[in-house]
Amino acid sequence: MKIINIVPGFGGTFYCGNCLRDSVFVNSLREGGHNAVILPVYLPLTGNENQRYDESPVFYGAVSIYLKQQFPFMRKMPGWMEHLLNSPPVLKFASSKAGSTRAEGMEDLTESMLMGKEGFQSQELQQLVDYLKHHEKPDIVHFSNALLLGMARQIKDEVRVPVVCSLQDEDVWIDAMHPGYRDKIWKLISEKAGDVDAFIAVSEYFANIMKKKLNIPDDKLNVVHIGVDPDLYEYTETSTNPPAIGFLSRICEENGFEILVDAFIQLKSEPKFKELKLKVSGGMTSDDKPFIRRQMKKLKINGIEEDIEFFPDFTLEGLKGFFRSISVLSVPVLKGEAFGLYQIEAMASGVPLVQPDLGAFPEIVKGSGGGVIYHPNTAEALSVKLEEVLSDPEKLKEMRRNGRKASEEEFNCKKLTLNMLKVYKNVRRSSPAII
Fold first, then answer.
1. Where are the alpha helices (DSSP H) in 215-330?
2. Are residues 178 and 310 in the same domain?
C-alpha cells in the first residue's frame, strides 16, 4: 500500500511532537513493507541534518502563500520569484523568525487554506493535486491535522483515493487566534470534516473533544495512540546522582516552563535538594527568547543559574544523553495536551513522569503506571509532588519498569501501526472515492 502523509513543517527549531509522531509512523510503515512518503507543507520538517526526512518538495511554501494572502498583487508573481521564495534557504530562514509558528496574525490565512480551491491558495492546491496524481499515485492520503482539510475535497475528486485525518491539538492553534475568528474556523473545519473518510484521534480525551466540535459520527472516529520503537531507546533503572528534573518540549510559556522553573526554585530552597539539577531540551523560536531570559533571571536572583543545563540536540541520538541525565520528566503544559510524545520517549528510557491532571496526561500516565499526576497545575503543587517522587527510590524503580513495559506493549509503534492499517483497509473497502 502507498500512503502519502501530508505534514506541516516546522523548520526544526524546536521539538515538535506532531512532526515526530508522523516521522515515527512513516518509518514504522516502511519497516512493515509499505511505501510511505511524507510531503511537507509550509516549511521544511527539520533544519537538523542529523534527522532524515524525505527529500520531497515543500508545498504551500510559507513565505509565498503569506505574501499572496497579504498583498493581492503578489498573487501574480513570476515563476522565478515563487521558486526563490520556496527555496530551502529562504524557508529555513523564515522558520527561524518570530511568528513563523504563531497562530495570532494567521487567522485570514488559516481561513483561506480551509476554503480549498475557493481560497487564495488554489494554485498551490492544484500543484499538490497534480503531484499526487502524476508523481506519487497513492492508495491513501493522510493529513497530519484537521487544519489541512481544505485540500481534502479536491484530492478525493481528482486523485480518487480515500482521505484520513489525524486529530491532535488543533484547539491549541485555533484558541490562540483573535476571538472573532475562532467560531468561524471551527465551523469551516466542521464543514470540511464531511470530506474525510476516517478520523484518527491520538487519545480518548481528544477524541471526545473533537467529536463534539466537528460533529464526527462514531463510525468515522478512531483512537490510535502515539508510539515509539522502544528498541531505539536506552533503558536504565539507575537513578541519577545528583538527582535531576527534565523538561522536553518547546521551551515556552504555554508548555509550562515557568511553572517548572518556579517549582525548581522552591525545591532548591530545601537542604536535601541542594544538589538538584534542572535539565532542559526541546528548542525554541525567536518568540520564546524574552520569556526564557526572564526565567533565567529568576534563577540567577536565587543563585542557582549554574544548576540548569540546556541540551540543544533533541534528535533521537541527542536525547539519549538527556534521558540518562534525569531522574524524572515534567512538562506542565498550561492547558494540557492531546497526547505528548515526550511522555512515551521518557518511559521507553526508564524515566518516570510527573504531569498535571490536564488533557490526556492522566490517560497516559495512569494507564501506564509510569508516573504520577498532580493537581492543580501550579508550581506549589508540582514541587510537592516532585519532592514526594524524588524521595521514594522504590517508587521510582517501580515507575521506571512500568513505563518501559508500557512503551514495549501499549505504546509500541509497531503494534499501533497495525491498528492504523486496519483503519486504512476499512476506508479503502468502503470509500466511494475508489473506482
1. 257-268, 289-301, 316-324
2. no
168 and 94 in a common domain: yes
Give the residue numbers spanning the domain of 118: 2-227+413-430
Q: Domain for residue 39, yes or no? A: yes
Residue 435 resides in a domain: no
Per-residue pLDDT of the chain (435 residues; tens, 9 = 90+): 999 999 987 666 677 777 778 888 888 889 889 999 999 988 877 643 333 444 578 888 877 887 878 777 777 788 778 777 777 667 766 665 544 455 666 789 899 999 999 998 899 999 999 999 999 999 999 999 999 999 999 999 999 999 999 999 999 889 888 888 899 999 999 999 999 999 999 999 999 999 999 999 999 999 999 999 999 999 987 777 899 999 999 999 999 999 999 999 999 999 999 999 999 999 998 889 999 999 999 999 999 999 999 999 998 899 999 999 999 999 999 999 999 999 999 999 999 999 999 999 999 999 999 999 999 999 999 999 999 999 999 999 999 999 999 999 999 999 999 999 999 999 998 875 554
Question: Residue 72 and residue 167: Cα distance in Å, rounded?
Answer: 32
Give ∠ CA 91-92-97 in degrees, rounded to 5.
Answer: 90
Which residue bears the cell 488533557? 359
